[in-house]
Amino acid sequence: MMSAVRTDRPPRHQLSAARRARNLLMGGLILLATLIVVAPLILIFAYLLREGIGAMNVNFFTRVPAPEGETGGGLANAILGSVEMLAMASVIGVVVGVAGGIFLAEYPRHPLMPTIRMISDVLAGIPAIVMGLVAYGLIVLHFGFSGLAGAVALGFLMIPIVVRTTEEVLKLVPHTVREAGLALGLPKWLVTLRIVLPAAAGGIVTGVMLALARVAGEAAPLLFTAFGNNQINLDPTKPMSALPLEIYRGATSAYDENQRLAKAGALLLITLIFLTSLLARRASRRK
Amino acid sequence: MSKRIPNPSAALSSRSDRLFEVLILALAAVIVLVFLLSVYQLGTESWPAARRFGLDFFTSRLWNPVTGQFGALAMITGTLVTSLAALVISVPLAIASALFVAEYAPRWLANPVGYLIELLAAVPSVVYGLWALFVISPILSRWEQGFFQAPEKIALYTQCKALWDAGQTTLQCFFVPSSFDGRGLALAVIILTVMILPYTASVARDVIRLVPQDQREAMYALGATKWEVISRAILPYARAGIMGGVILALGRALGETLAVAMVIGDSQDVLKSLFGGASTMASVIANQFGDAQEALHRSSVVTLGLTLFIMSVIVNYVARLIIARLTPKGIQ
């Protein structure tokens, strides 16, 4: 048995100066490029932390935006709106997404399987703003702006993400597990529901969390569906605000107070999204 | 000898199995339904504009809600130019960072750096827009204003202004600022570059990791340097997969909305100035759909949406096709 030989360092004396220089230069450029890639994330987070942390007081979480020109408002309307719309969206995203994932993973020989897989992939590529137009035509045109319309747009956007992760984790469940269940005389549906799904539950939850983190930051599809609301509104049939919507309005507003709220809102949103992705990543790595 | 043992639960279980299959299929069919509804919705709503303008919609540079003239040339060029420029800048950076994570960094550094790059994809579009608006645009704006300290530059601007007003530009004028608030094409390209970086980077990292170790060892055995191994063994092997990641990033760039809408300056001029207002299909939808009162205006905006929809679907499908073909069977 040969012991492992380090292969990444050829003897220095054999290399011409030009090759050695080029190797060092490219290594340096790669390091520099990586720093350039990572820098925006650190700069954005540092900027929001510096500008937004001051506004994160009790008012921020309990009040609604102050009338223009006044100070002391908060984003309670947006926080509650986001929570409510995301909850409604996940009903659509989870039910359809998980079912789609089960179909793709457990019925691979079904004649409709290639079609549904292809359309699910296609759906993943639809820009969020276009999904906003679709939800506008389907719901707003008939029933007016509402939190429900926004939630439908977000739910549609969640579907392909949940489908894909569900399919992937279901395929990780060993076939022997299914066969064992079937050998015990359990019908296939019970095997799927009681054995395969629980085995893959962790991965599915991870997928749902990633999908939520993804759509929680979407403002574009909400512009003409949920529309926004300056007051706290928990009625899903009425216009509703959301954190990304308030960030958009505040950032493009001329008023300092609105800009301040937008920066604090962005800090809150980005922190929640980072935490969710971190938790999802932790959960999936443990498996 | 072999006698079928009657199984009373067999009939029952096959019936319940079929019921379950139908239920799952029905729910999965909602995916198809969502797609068909989207096509139907966008198709019927864009019909008035499509019938009125036909193919002129794509070749006319007039976009005027007041006179009811709608041509999307400015938004289509704006979308393509910003996306392609962002792609050109981001691809080398993304590949370099993928090489760093996969080939250079020790494990304790590779994981956190890889994770930071993934977080870049998690930052919402509005947050990028806010940052670009408050942090980058003042820097650009200072540069643009400084550009006009010299008298000869002011003369140049006057020349270009006449050209722009006539709907034209020259290569030289393309690099003369036409607005001084920092917003415009350049800022949109910068922010798009940052936003699509993680997509190319994560796909590139995955395919670079798939390059068999033998490839590297063979090159090292011949006395190659690390860079020679990367440039002659790893990158050629991973080329097709990286291409898939690049096309996926293109799909993202085409549909990116609010960050671009916030910083691009919303002007319907065709490729006027790199440092001046422009627009993309997505930015026009975001900025105008809510205010579009007139039916034809509204329909024209939806036609932009349909065009964007078709472009993104094609681009994403091609990307997924390339990536799927490269995933080794059996691993999954």
Topology:
The complex is a heterodimer of chains A (287) and B (332).
Chain A: H1 17-52, H2 58-62, H3 76-106, H4 113-124, H5 128-143, H6 147-172, H7 175-183, H8 188-216, H9 243-251, H10 256-286
Chain B: H1 8-53, H2 56-59, E1 63-64, E2 69-70, H3 73-104, H4 107-122, H5 125-147, H6 151-165, H7 171-174, H8 185-210, H9 213-221, H10 226-255, H11 258-263, H12 281-288, H13 295-326
Antiparallel strand pairs in B: 1-2
Q: How does this model look, in words?
A:
The complex is a heterodimer of chains A (about 290) and B (about 325). Chain A is mostly helical and about 290 residues long. Chain A is about 70% helix and about 0% strand. Chain A contains 10 helices and no strands. In chain A, helix 3 (about 75-105) packs parallel to helix 6 and helix 6 (about 145-170) packs across helix 8 (about 190-215). The longest helix of chain A has about 35 residues, at about 15-50. The two termini of chain A are about 35 Å apart. With about 325 residues, chain B is an all-alpha fold. In chain B, about 75% of the residues lie in helices and about 0% in strands. In chain B, helix 3 packs parallel to helix 8 (about 185-210). Chain B has a two-stranded antiparallel sheet with strand order 1-2. Chains A and B meet through helix 1, helix 3, helix 4, helix 5 and helix 6 of A and helix 1, helix 3, helix 4, helix 5 and helix 8 of B.
